[in-house]
């Protein structure tokens, strides 16, 4: 029995187009007719056996030929066949397809003779490395590679390669380079290993020559564009500090929301900004950007209300902390800041899961708006455990001594932020992050993750002087000695010369 992916995909025979079916059958009968009775009986027996469905057989052994991408143990889990099992062709077909669908192989087929089951593999090549030539710095290239979805160690796949090529072109367009040409070539590094090289012929940038905001009367263009990624090019825009007007296509869909936010920071709560319309002249690489703007009226704050289901903090204390004031022009940025201030005030009392929901009650006729903060306090929360990770050199106790919260402590948001800042100030870590993990309604774990930074410094100096001759100095310093948080420094200065005597001097 021989089962392969190719056989499973092509399950039929094709007649000879040059010979009529009837004549072919007669010719076959004449050639294959037995000359005596014994031959006739043997031929009938063989024909009968070949037309029968293969019988179930017991598996005596299983082996994998040409397999290096995975262990035999993992392959056994995929095929779901064990020594001693009774299998038929259908079960073997299922096992072959399961192996092929792992994506590591060009072809997989199986042979089953005398109870010996063998799976044969033609493996895909591995990607030994990915290079981008013709564009950017190493840091920029690393950023592009992360968007391409292809990396060292992956199996080589044509579809994956095309996807990476498309992603690279899209990323270049998002950075403002249009008409870029990307060619892909492969270089054989060793048997079964390929180097993938993307040759980039970067296209030209498109510049926004004019931006039009139809319907905008209350705000100037520069104010409207203050938060936008795509802006009209300034005169001499190539100079530092001026807007170059370069089109950033990947940010264009978000600019309508940014413009709306500019209006809402200035009290125009009903402002509506259309989707952008971009007209590009590829012969000059100039573009015109067009929006339709409905500004509406400007609102002032008529009143501020705080509704809290459990007054764990006095209302007067909460009101005093707010930035939003009565009779002020409404500012959505202040509203967001105040929601965070209220959250902090409640969370500092131990209510970590408090929720603040801002709401607005507009009076369009008089241009007034009432600001309402609805607060759901929730349960008191305590720290269940503090879990530290990423400290390969620095000991746990050095980290814990900087934390203002520990197990069984009442939650405090300000202390949590100060703990994170305190770890950063140590200077031992390149990255610091404290995450909250909810255990239940009253317990929380703190997950402290750090990434060790460089804490040592080595310096050498070489000089020459008429008095001291050749001078050599060096210093070694370490700010986190053996992960204990202690500092140490050594300094040495060597001079080869003696002094110089002058007439009249002793």
Automatic annotation (TrEMBL):
* Start and end residues of each POTRA domain: 57-124, 125-201, 206-296, 299-378, 381-453
Q: What is its main location?
A: membrane
Q: Where do the record's region annotations for Disordered lie? A: 1-57
Q: Does the keyword Metal-binding apply?
A: no
What PROSITE patterns is this protein classified in? POTRA (PS51779)
Q: Which GO terms describe its cellular component?
A: cell outer membrane
Q: Which UniProt keywords apply?
A: Membrane, Transmembrane, Transmembrane beta strand
**GO BP terms:** membrane assembly
Q: Does the keyword Transport apply?
A: no
Q: Where is the composition biased (Basic and acidic residues)?
A: 29-45
Tell me what this protein is called: Outer membrane protein assembly factor BamA
Name the species this protein comes from: Helicobacter pylori PZ5080
């Amino acid at each position: 029995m021989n089962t392969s992916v190719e056989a499973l995909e092509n399950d039929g025979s094709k007649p000879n187009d040059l010979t009529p079916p009837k004549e072919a059958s007669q010719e076959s009968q004449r050639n294959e007719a037995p000359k005596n009775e014994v031959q006739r009986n043997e031929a009938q027996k063989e024909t009968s056996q070949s037309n029968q469905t293969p019988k179930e057989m017991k598996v005596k052994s299983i082996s994998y030929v040409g397999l290096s991408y995975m262990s035999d143990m993992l392959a056994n889990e995929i095929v779901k066949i064990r020594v001693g099992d009774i299998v038929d062709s259908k079960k073997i077909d299922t096992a072959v397809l399961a192996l092929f669908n792992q994506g590591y192989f060009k072809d997989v087929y199986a042979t089953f003779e005398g109870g010996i089951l063998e799976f044969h593999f033609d493996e895909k090549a591995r990607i030994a490395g990915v290079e981008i030539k013709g564009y950017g710095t190493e840091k920029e290239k690393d950023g592009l590679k992360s968007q391409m979805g292809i990396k060292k160690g992956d199996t080589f796949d044509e579809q994956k390669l095309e996807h990476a090529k498309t992603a690279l072109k899209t990323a270049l367009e998002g950075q403002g380079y249009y008409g870029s040409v990307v060619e892909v070539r492969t270089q054989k590094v060793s048997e079964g290993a390929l180097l993938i090289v993307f040759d980039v012929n970067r296209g030209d940038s498109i510049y926004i020559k004019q931006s039009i905001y139809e319907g905008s009367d209350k705000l100037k263009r520069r104010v409207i564009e203050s938060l936008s990624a795509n802006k009209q090019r300034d005169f001499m825009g190539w100079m530092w500090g001026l807007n170059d007007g370069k089109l950033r296509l990947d940010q264009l869909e978000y600019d309508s929301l940014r413009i709306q936010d500019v209006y809402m920071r200035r009290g125009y709560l009903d402002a509506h900004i259309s989707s952008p319309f971009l007209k590009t002249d590829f012969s000059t690489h100039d573009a015109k950007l067009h929006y339709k703007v409905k500004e509406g009226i400007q609102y002032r704050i008529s009143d501020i209300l705080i509704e809290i289901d459990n007054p764990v903090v006095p209302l007067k204390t909460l009101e005093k902390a707010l930035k939003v004031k009565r009779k002020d022009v409404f500012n959505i940025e202040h509203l967001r800041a105040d929601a965070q201030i209220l959250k902090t005030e409640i969370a500092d009392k131990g209510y970590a899961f408090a929720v603040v929901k801002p709401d607005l009650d507009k009076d369009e006729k008089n241009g007034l708006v009432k600001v309402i903060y609805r607060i759901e306090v929730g349960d008191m929360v305590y720290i269940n455990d503090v879990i530290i990770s990423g400290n390969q050199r620095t000991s746990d106790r050095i980290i814990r001594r900087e934390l203002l919260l520990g197990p069984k402590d009442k939650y405090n948001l300000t202390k949590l932020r100060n703990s994170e800042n305190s770890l950063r100030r140590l200077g031992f870590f390149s990255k610091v992050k404290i995450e909250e993990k909810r255990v239940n309604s009253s317990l929380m774990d703190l997950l402290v993750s750090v990434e060790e930074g460089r804490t040592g410094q080595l310096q050498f100096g070489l000089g020459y002087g008429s008095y001291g001759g050749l001078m050599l100095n060096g210093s070694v310093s370490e700010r986190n000695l053996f992960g204990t948080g202690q500092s140490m420094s050594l300094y040495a200065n060597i001079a080869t010369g003696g002094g110089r005597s002058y007439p009249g001097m002793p």
